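Figure S4 source data
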Amino acid sequence: MNRIAQALGGILFAGSIAASAGAQNLLTNGSFHSDISDWSPSIQGTGITAFSSLDADGSPASGSLQTTNTSSAAGQNYNYRQCRGAVAGAPYDFGGKVRVALGQPTGIFYILLNFYANATCSGSGIGTSDASSRLDFTPSGAWQGLSRTGLVAPLGTLSVSVTLGNFKAGAGGATTVLFDDIFLAVTGAFRATLTVPVAASIHGANGTFFHSDLWILARSFTNSVAVTAVYRCFGGVNCGTGKTVTLAPRESRLISDIVATLFGVPESGGAIELSWDTFNGSITARTRLFTPSSPPSYGFGVPAEPSTAATARAVFIGVAGSADPSKGFRSNAGAYNPNPTSVTVIFTLYDGATGAQLGSPLIRVWAPFEAAQVSNATASLGAGAVTTTNAVLVATAIGGNVFFYAATIDNQSGDSFNLGISADEPPVP
């Protein structure tokens, strides 16, 4: 490319892709869609429990559990809980959303996790303290989301309970609390990942500087989201250490030149993985790979794609190439292997009008977690003497699904555009 770094020339144009993940909640009816079944009282004082139509996510088809502590004596709990089997040594995550109105008597409003050395969650808990296993919510009149991760069940654990707590400190009066989206899960069960197949911070041809800006949005109105960002350099090496980006509810953060500023690995290219726990809500992320100092700037969007976007076979149409590199177009293609094992990638080029194969297939092994690009695809696949704007590129992977991308670049202007990935039919035997 005459305007930007050759190694990263034609990255695909992108839209914003959001991700969420459904995962196994060990609790039943934690979202209180229509009732408060499966939750049992654990009560010292007196109170009232009811299903409320107020839902933490505003859904008219769901609701929440409402407890009102009316105990006349001071220092009384009016709680509900659920008991489940647990495995000693296993790590657990828990949390939920709570709404406590302002102007109520003083109390402690919480979600509590306890482990037990019996199968019925009876007697005293073992191995945890309130500091690590209790989430406290302050009166605000709004829904608040909190969670805690990685609580390891101690030796001898047979069961675990999650308690929805409404503790009224003083005598008289009443405290009312709403609970919703309560969960308990083995650590990692709710983990999801978005992948940016290629990003960079590189100086290229004619003194241009080519970098990736990342935008990331926490879509939850109630929960902060901690996102772990991992950068995978070209060559399959994990460049730099993983970084944590914590977003407030509804915060959108711009990280300019993310490869250099967040990961501290300038003059490199690779893929970025963004992982988070979906019980804190979904995220939306996208990047722009461009030359910020060029008047005008040149660049294109690159999506952060969900795991389901990885595939073993894809087709790109409108692939272009020119026998004269000073004229016409060229096309670049690439892949990121998100697997812990090697994958063989094959790129095959065809004439769009006749279906005849152009050049020879490019066959290459992508190492675990390797991002790599094939620049000037027609030349790299042995069809450098061909001038075309109507070639078809078929990309296949053997040994695992990968993230493919491709784009075409104008050899004169440096402009580039997304070729767009499409699913392909399997070849006829």
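Figure S5 source data
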Amino acid sequence: MNPVLQPRPRTPITWSTALPKAAISGFATVVLLVAILALTKSAFFLLVVIPLGGIISVWLYARGKDPSEIVAGTGARVGAVTGLFSYLIYGIIVAAQISSQKGIIEETMRKAIEQAVARNPNPETQAMMNQIMTPEGIATILAVSAVIFLFVFLIFGALGGSVGAAMVRRNRHDPDQL
């Protein structure tokens, strides 16, 4: 077989090196995310900051390594782990906010649901609102939201890690940029 066409053996990720860098990047991602959310009150920045955390974690992981070892799959896995760390740290912050401001959050949810029901006079909508506003309904909403956010953090972290891997490989000819 032609040596050019042979696949290169995949270099395994050195998790003992990658995990601390992913954790640091995850923490930095949450700090940046909380600061931006406090200033802008826009969740759109969640979709920008999380990939940035993946990029940073891959950049930190690639320092001192052969850039040809940092492929898109490596970047995606390191980025996804960064997303997981970010999710866990951000989840602790959100859980603390929810537990300390439970009454305010319930009232805000109730008003939003009542406004939605007022726009739709269907009696089934009123029955659904009554189910949602029970403690079990609120717990279900929070649990489903938590799972959705987990996937958002993982996917966007992995995307950022893939972009970070491409950036590392592109700059492999200039080691001063790493």
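The mean pLDDT is 86. The CA atoms of residues 87 and 149 lie 8 Å apart.
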